Amino acid sequence: MGVLRRLSKLPFVFDPVIGSKLEDLVIPKPPFRPEIGETYSFLAIGTRKLFDIKTDETRRKTRRFLREELFKTTNSPESIEFKKRAFQITSQLFNSEKGKDTNVSFLSNVISIEECMYGNLHFGIDHHYGIALPFFRKFAKDVHKSSFLNKLKNGNSVCCLIDTGYEHTLAIEVDGETWTLNGSINCSEIASVADLFMLTISNEAENPKTLLIDSRIGGLSIDSISKNSFQLNFKGVQLTEENVLHLDQELLSQFTAVANLLQSTASQARSELAFDLIRSSIRNRKVLEDDVKKILADAKTEICVNRLYVDNCLSNHLERKISPILAAMCRLRTYEVEKNVLKRIPEYLLNPHYKSYVDNFINSDKLRAAITNRIEDDA
Fold first, then answer.
1. Of 113, 59, 92, which is closest to residue 259 (Cα–Cα)?
2. Which of 270, 290, 291, 278 is nearest to 339 (CA)?
3. Pick the CATH number of 159-247 from 3.40.50.2000, 3.40.50.2300, 2.40.110.10, 3.40.50.150
4. For the chain, how far is it from start to end, CA to CA, in angstroms?
5. Measured distance CA(102)–CA(104) in Å, rounded
6. Whether the predicted model's global pTM rises above the 0.85 cut
7. pLDDT tens string 99-122
8. DSSP character for 353?
9. Are 187 and 231 contacting, i.e. CB atoms less than 8 angstroms apart?
10. DSSP annotation of 20
11. Model pLDDT for residues 267-315, shown as the tens digit of each residue
């Protein structure tokens, strides 16, 4: 019942800024929340369909493309070439639908994120670079467009959006038209292969500025903290007006909302695959007693309800732009679910000598087998 009490607090998806009058508010129907007694059938749920038949066909094409281009043409998941190829593939997918509106591109990116998360958990994937492209196309200086835009479109370069919500010690000094950056910020593994960095930073005297930074610029270095975590170091990195993207507050808010929604999608995909692998491990050890079934059912309830919540947020964004506050709520909620699946469930269900889910499954043959079976079953 504790799970249901927590789920009952899940916010409905509506934007309070749509209209100033009560009758102007558009409130979607609340998502379906299944009872625990109904969730045993959820244990057999596989890869879901996304929105409708047309987009599900796009999903199947995406899955086949990833399988043929990545699984069959790369051998070492730990190599830099493998990682960069994976980022480039998803970048190509994002830009493959030329002439379509922004919503179609957004939906295509959602699909590629999920499929890449389902198939490439050997390393941390940060999908921010995809959403940087439409803003980059509109607001970058000509000098940056000529240097990077065509390469990004063709998948020959990787753009990393740095989330300043991570722990950092970045400081900016302004001297006329020159900005000097000092300090460091934690980032994900995509930074190790990125050609271009994009981050928003401010100091007390300046409004937030979104900066584009070439990875080859002097004073910029990257240190590895752990297997999937890196630190970006700035030592006297000097930037000029040419490095600044001039985004007004509304555009910056929209940028943040899209980033949070895509992060939510990737986090939800990780939760779903993690649950599948944990359940498979338990079945192989033949320990499906009633108490274990209840723990699994509680977890699957939370994952399924959060899937409906994420889908509702994505649909709202496609119909009318979702507010950054609601997108942030979706991200936080999804991260909480992922944390519960990856950390709390193994404490109850896995053998005591298993220190963590990641150490025992991410780099194992079981993961590769689970990925292959999932793709083949849904192709």
1. 113
2. 270
3. 2.40.110.10
4. 37
5. 5
6. no
7. 444 454 555 556 555 555 554 433
8. T
9. yes
10. S
11. 787 777 777 767 776 666 555 566 667 777 778 888 888 887 887 787 7
